[in-house]
Amino acid sequence: MEFLDLAVQRYSVRRFDSRKVDSLLVNQILEAGRLAPTAKNLQPQRIYVIQSEAMLAKLAAITPMTFNAPQVMVICGDEQEAWVNPFNQHSSAEMDASIVAVHMMLQMQELGIGSTWVCWFDTAQVKQALNLPETVVPYCLLPFGYPAADCHPSHQHDQRKPLDQTVKYL
């Protein structure tokens, strides 16, 4: 599949059927994330694959934005292991974790698995629910699974600004 075709086909899936994604496919998705570039190749990403009913219920109590997905990845970064920009002291952890998440989302799409990016949650509550180490920060949730038969892109999916509104050549 051509990359632009993959990018065009991918949309935020918010309705899933109940089937769990097989562990071999989950590992393939995680491998795509492992191969993602990170600042200085420090790889500060920490990924938690939530699949037990108890943990899914904990996440659903924190945010309704898990969309009853059969599995959820919690994408985190370890601030202690991330590169820090010496000019502004900003950590690369969130940026690195985001790159990893996008790699995995695109791998999911290629495999026929839907996902959506969720950042509408209380970070402290997720951190507590997962008993994350002090230096590990959750940045996004990726609910994932097979799209429900009646799932379709939102009405806003195809609304993209033209390049001249987002790109400047200097």
Automatic annotation (TrEMBL):
<keyword id="KW-0285">Flavoprotein</keyword>
<comment type="similarity">
    <text>Belongs to the nitroreductase family.</text>
</comment>
<dbReference type="InterPro" id="IPR029479">
    <property type="entry name" value="Nitroreductase"/>
</dbReference>
<feature type="domain" description="Nitroreductase">
    <location>
        <begin position="8"/>
        <end position="61"/>
    </location>
</feature>
<keyword id="KW-0560">Oxidoreductase</keyword>
<feature type="domain" description="Nitroreductase">
    <location>
        <begin position="64"/>
        <end position="146"/>
    </location>
</feature>
<dbReference type="Pfam" id="PF00881">
    <property type="entry name" value="Nitroreductase"/>
</dbReference>
<keyword id="KW-0288">FMN</keyword>
<dbReference type="GO" id="GO:0016491">
    <property type="term" value="F:oxidoreductase activity"/>
</dbReference>
<dbReference type="InterPro" id="IPR000415">
    <property type="entry name" value="Nitroreductase-like"/>
</dbReference>
<protein>
    <submittedName>
        <fullName>Nitroreductase</fullName>
    </submittedName>
</protein>
